[in-house]
Amino acid sequence: MHPIKAWYHSTIPDCITCHQVWLIIHVLVTIALCILYFTHIIQVSGGTIAICELLFGVLVRNEIFIALLHRFVALIPCFKYEFNRMLHCIGGLHVSSAIACLFWLLISLSCEHHGLGVRITGGIILFLILLISLTAIPIVRRRFHNTFEHIHRYIGWTSLIILIIHVIFIQLEKFDSFNTKTLFNIPVLILLAIIIIIFLPWICVRKVFVQYNQPSKDLTILTFPHVLYPYGSFTRISFDGHEWHAFAIALTDPCTDQHSVLIAAAGDWTKTLADDYRNNKLPQHVWIRRIKGLGFMHSIHAYRKVLIVCTGAGIAPALPYIKDPLPTTHTHILWIAKKHEENYGEYVWKLVQKMHLHCTLYDTSVSGRPGPQLVEEHFWKTNSQAVFVVSNEKFTIEVINALWRKDIPCFGALFDS
């Protein structure tokens, strides 16, 4: 490894650099736009730039757009790690777009001539986006996660309604007569795009019948209709249509046209789910989004040989690669868990056993909790090109940072992206 690259890898944790890169890129773009704006080289209003930033902010959270990016990036032949890692950290672009939107809206209201209606609605939008941004600060978001979700959704929708009124006031200021140019200018078209992007996932929400199974007290399996979803997909479910949770699609069955998710009793909601199953309190129907997103596991397609490290119920996203292996990618599974067969059921156990030549089982009840060294040893042993970690936050970050310092491509779920 080159000395400069070695220093970079040994001093900067990988899990934060990609977010910072997105922020740096956005800051540089904003500085360039400021120069062009204040020197009047471009004849674009600050309000138009602000609504463009808002468009970027919602677009990079749209599951269809992210899925298209995943498919495109997986085909790039060079700089695979860098491109895929930047894609996984695209939440940094979401954050920087919100900050840039605040900045340009403030410039528009303070440096441009507008009527009272535009100033009032613009000020309300400024306050609401600032409120959303403050609740999205990691320490606040983690401590008051449910409050953050409600504010992000409902204040976000309120901001959209005020934005519609804001754009109408802007159009009335420039109104001369009804014509195509007046009705379909840039701010109006961008606003229409934002509305479609935000509401499309909600239009595709359906209430479906669900089947439950509980191989052990710490694992619940939910099965839903429909099966044709790509590897690395995840689904969002809700019991009340209000609180939503995302889980990787673990099992698919074309014969019965069903797909399943494995849910470990790890947090408050998942523990309540396991308890409600035993007490027969779970509903027969749940809300589900028909549009499925692609997670970081889809980047497996970018490599010919990978090591997938799973702990506990983290085996769920790896099961599609076990049941129906990819023709273009060889996968080796390292499953770290306690008493695999006893805790995860006969079906999952037999499915993994079928692939025993390419699967290593590490029983923590016998060998204790492992560290990153175990993952590194299996990486070299299997001659893999990259490592994918599906585990809890502590172990994931520990492994990613340890392998980053060894210049080993390693990907893991982002818990605050």
Automatic annotation (TrEMBL):
<feature type="transmembrane region" description="Helical">
    <location>
        <begin position="86"/>
        <end position="107"/>
    </location>
</feature>
<feature type="transmembrane region" description="Helical">
    <location>
        <begin position="119"/>
        <end position="139"/>
    </location>
</feature>
<dbReference type="InterPro" id="IPR039261">
    <property type="entry name" value="FNR_nucleotide-bd"/>
</dbReference>
<protein>
    <recommendedName>
        <fullName>FAD-binding FR-type domain-containing protein</fullName>
    </recommendedName>
</protein>
<keyword id="KW-1133">Transmembrane helix</keyword>
<feature type="transmembrane region" description="Helical">
    <location>
        <begin position="21"/>
        <end position="42"/>
    </location>
</feature>
<feature type="transmembrane region" description="Helical">
    <location>
        <begin position="151"/>
        <end position="172"/>
    </location>
</feature>
<keyword id="KW-0472">Membrane</keyword>
<feature type="transmembrane region" description="Helical">
    <location>
        <begin position="184"/>
        <end position="205"/>
    </location>
</feature>
<keyword id="KW-0812">Transmembrane</keyword>
<feature type="transmembrane region" description="Helical">
    <location>
        <begin position="54"/>
        <end position="74"/>
    </location>
</feature>
<dbReference type="InterPro" id="IPR052979">
    <property type="entry name" value="Adenylate-forming_domain"/>
</dbReference>
